[in-house]
Specification:
Radius of gyration: 16 Å
Shape: globular
Order of helices and strands: EHEHEEHHEEEHEHE
Number of domains: 1
Oligomer: single chain
Helix content: 25-40%
């Protein structure tokens, strides 16, 4: 299996470890931010949740970015109370947003505490005027999910801009996610994958299994060596 043949990949970059990958992805985000701000005056960025992006955010906060020109969105959120430590916006706040000079009004959190249906409706209204996003940063779960688009879940096939997710296979079962079309129409997509726990899913994708992350179009994949099948 040749890892450079990941389906729909625009590019596949392999890094020695998570730290090296995090530095490279942070620098890539800073470059794309500068380009978007120069071209359009604003950078619309959707952040990923999970543990792999955390290290990237810690690197990103030390780079020179015009944060008042950045608008932050989230690729997905867990339906937990506002401020819960397991929420993606809490992790992003702790690792990045509390450490940079970004106006509070530029951070557009998903109101997932309202429940999946209402939160999805409200977030679709919030994000609608900002589409297409300049960059969506995505991770991959050990089952091949990305954002909160899980294998065999109806939300994964939805054409909605923002999708309510029910019966997720990992808690909490109720979530909110940007829809696949919203992710795929972004100007840039970066997928970051680290750790040996991801090998099996990458192997399945290389063999042609249609896991959700394999449907992300023209993505720039960043992998650490531990994740390689």
């Amino acid at each position: 299996m040749n890892i450079t043949e990941l389906p729909n990949a625009q590019a596949v970059l392999i890094h020695d470890d998570l730290d090296e990958m995090s530095v490279a992805v942070a620098q890539r985000i800073a470059t794309l931010a500068a380009q978007a701000i120069a071209a359009r005056g604003v950078f619309h960025l959707a952040l990923a949740g999970g543990e792999t992006p955390r290290r990237c955010y810690e690197k990103l906060r030390n780079l020179a970015i015009a944060w008042p020109r950045v608008q932050i969105y989230f690729g997905d959120e867990r339906c937990l109370p506002e401020g819960d430590k397991q929420r993606n916006d809490s992790m992003s706040k702790e690792s990045l947003l509390d450490h940079v000079a970004i106006p509070h009004a530029n951070i557009h959190r998903i109101p997932a505490e309202l429940g999946a249906n209402e939160a999805a409706d409200r977030y679709a209204a919030t994000i609608g005027l900002s589409l297409p996003l300049d960059l969506v940063l995505l991770g991959m779960g050990e089952d091949g999910h990305t954002a909160s688009l899980f294998p065999d879940n109806p939300a994964t096939e939805s054409a909605m801009v923002v999708v309510p997710v029910f019966n997720a296979p990992k808690p909490p079962a109720e979530r909110v996610s940007l829809g696949r079309n919203t992710l795929n129409t972004a100007r840039q997509r970066i997928i970051i994958v680290a750790g040996s726990g991801k090998r099996a899913a990458l192997g399945k994708i290389l063999l042609g299994q249609p896991l959700p992350v394999a449907h992300i179009a023209a993505a720039e994949w960043h992998l650490d060596r531990a994740a390689l099948p």
